[in-house]
Amino acid sequence: MNRIKQYRQKKKLSQYELSQRIGVARQTINLIENDKYNPSLALCLKLAYALETDLNTLFWEVDASSAESSQ
């Protein structure tokens, strides 16, 4: 599952609510969550801020379960 979606659901936000917080269309959130759109750095920063996390955690940090399954 996409990490942005995980954090959004953890915060109990709908795609619409998140989109309103960062100033984009709901469809943009959907495309990002489905890996069909690569957000700009500015948008990544807004996402991280709205989801109360940092860029590293949201986009690059490797999950322990993912690392184990790839070995």
Automatic annotation (TrEMBL):
Q: Which GO terms describe its molecular function?
A: DNA binding
Report the InterPro entries cross-referenced here: Cro/C1-type_HTH, Lambda_DNA-bd_dom_sf
Extract the PROSITE patterns matched here.
HTH_CROC1
* Segments forming domain HTH cro/C1-type: 4-58
Q: Which UniProt keywords apply?
A: DNA-binding
Under which name does UniProt file this protein? HTH cro/C1-type domain-containing protein
In which organism is this protein found? Leuconostoc fallax
Q: What is the lineage of its organism?
A: Bacteria, Bacillati, Bacillota, Bacilli, Lactobacillales
